[in-house]
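Internal tracking record. Fields below are filled automatically when a chain is submitted to the structure queue. Please do not edit lines marked as system-generated. If the sequence contains nonstandard residues, flag them in the REMARKS field before resubmitting.
Queue: standard
Priority: normal
Entity type: single polypeptide chain
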Amino acid sequence: MERPHWKPRSTAHRLCQALRLAVLLGVGGALGVAAPLRAVIPLNGDWQIAEGEMDTPPAEFTRHVPVPGLVDMAQPPFTAVGVKSGLRQAFWYRRTFTLPGALPAVALLKLHKAAYGTRVFLNGQVLGDHLPSFTPGYFDLRPALRLQGSPNELLVRVGAYRDAVPPSIPAGWDFEKTKYIPGLFDDVEIILSGTPHLLRVQAAPDITNRCVRVQAQVRNTGPATLSGVEFVVREAGSGAVVGRADAPPQLLPAGTEARFEATIPIARCHLWSPETPFLYRLEARTKGDRLDTRFGMREFHFDPASGRAVLNGRPYFLRGSNVTLYRFFEDPARGDRPWRADWVRRLHRAFKTMHWNSLRYCIGFPPELWYRIADEEGFLIQDEFPLWHLSSWPSELKREELAREYTEWMRERWNHPCVVLWDAQNETRSPETGPAIQMVRALDLSHRPWDNGWSAPEAPGDSFESHPYLFQNPKFRLEQLGQVSGVPGGNALPGHGTNAIIINEYGWLWLNRDGTPTTLTKQVYQNLLGPTATPAQRRHLYARYLAALTEFWRAHRACAGVLHFCGLGYSRPGGQTSDHFTDLERLTFEPEFKRYVGDAFAPVGLMIDEWAETLPAGQPRTFPVVVINDLDRPWEGSVQFRVLRGGSPVASLTQHCALTNLGSQRLSFALTLPTKSGPYQLEATLLGGGERVRSWRDFAIP
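SYSTEM-GENERATED OUTPUT FOLLOWS
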């Protein structure tokens, strides 16, 4: 796979960069109001922490905790963290910092994500509150900031449990969680600059014209001034300049904001895709500030006529999985892994080995680190806001609050090429999410589609999520799949029309990492394998059945995407779902899952369209095999079809197969079944074009 020439940078490297920039700004010397650049000073690292009341800071801090991270990582540990407890109302984080120099025009504290409900104090003075737990909070440090090398005491209070925020604020309720662990679970940083300063920048690619539309929001906190914005585009890997433009100057009175726009042609334009994740860096500069962001030349939408996703002007099938990180937060083996860049990168690379090109970050946003890595490794992300109210919608939660938090979310994420779908909620029929979507949709200059859970889609180009959990009925058997429609129903809302369908959950066959059933699947395995089944038997059935379901939904070509549930979740006592890892640190997949489900997600794949569990001895029978091609190029090879007994072939046929790009073909293999009773397997194998891909079915001759 072609990769851009990019090397990941460590936290230490970024800190050194920030400190060098701080020296340029004068943070290490004399920082003036008209400083020409910004400094971003990371405050990640070791903080002090204590528990206490909501309104009164603790008298002493006797524990330490890493930031970013969660409160359960404190040493010495607290008791009863993440559950409703009378031991405390809040946790208080504390650290000190110094900033030599004069007072800058802009000094902001940014908390990327903090749960649950945040209040910030600097040197004993309240700087403000930010109740949302999943979007950034910004706090003006200037009113209480001490400079000239004097120490500053920073206190951040977070609620100890999700009920620390009122019912009018989303708190990440999840029916399948038992813990809501608070903490500063994303980066913390100080932003220093002169003015006019850049509040935010948005890059909207135009791949047809090989240019990018850029929009910058600028604020002036100093005296009235005339200011423009200079934009420079570089290749993120090489640093080569590939485009420039200037937005004309505007008069900015004191305390006002203005919007600046420009269109920048991109020389030697490279498109971003999961196969070639090429990145650019956009530099925006005023005479008092500079803001850098990355973007990719990528366009994505759904075609209402075909129901398919379109990436960079071409139909594109989504194959992938889910990450339920907020559930993983309560996994006993979680540790510090969600904040380790090496582990997160290896996780996404492990997902690539399953032929996945897309992920849903499900019922909650991971730290910003995850999006940077998804940009670099090449994934299409369905970014799902943490709302799941399956039974009833909370009456206190209104569209105005949702629109406010959706806006904060979009501003944080809209330059990431990996994010292709705003997902307003999960499995919920809500009177408020649809209007909130309409209130914020126009903010995104890239016009990404939206998903509205089990509520009605808000536009023809939006998608609809379907969760056809066939084994939710514990009496369902795989042989019944032949009578199931290839257009998924599940909990689909009637009348969703021609909106693209994404299956982003299916199966209901979960096993814990040790091979035991979850609370939702005990009866399923009891019915399918009986009470004495071993973990190995359950794992084999899970892998073969999940592969068959994946083949079924992909082969019918009725959906824009098929995303299995789930790639990363928890495995805990009393848990409802789980992932497929046997070693979390090494990110080793359970071997049967890797073997069978990996084949089921292959870009050129196949499905034996035979579902009977028993077949008559010695009878002639024709077996259909559907071959599909997700590639944007033709595929040609052969399909071998065999009947196996004990791993040895008793019959074998081969046919030539030629597929158009994104095409499919239905082949037929006629043979006479064996006469000897016993267990058998059907095996279809793609031959040619690289790796061998197989489809399997088990049957018996009585």
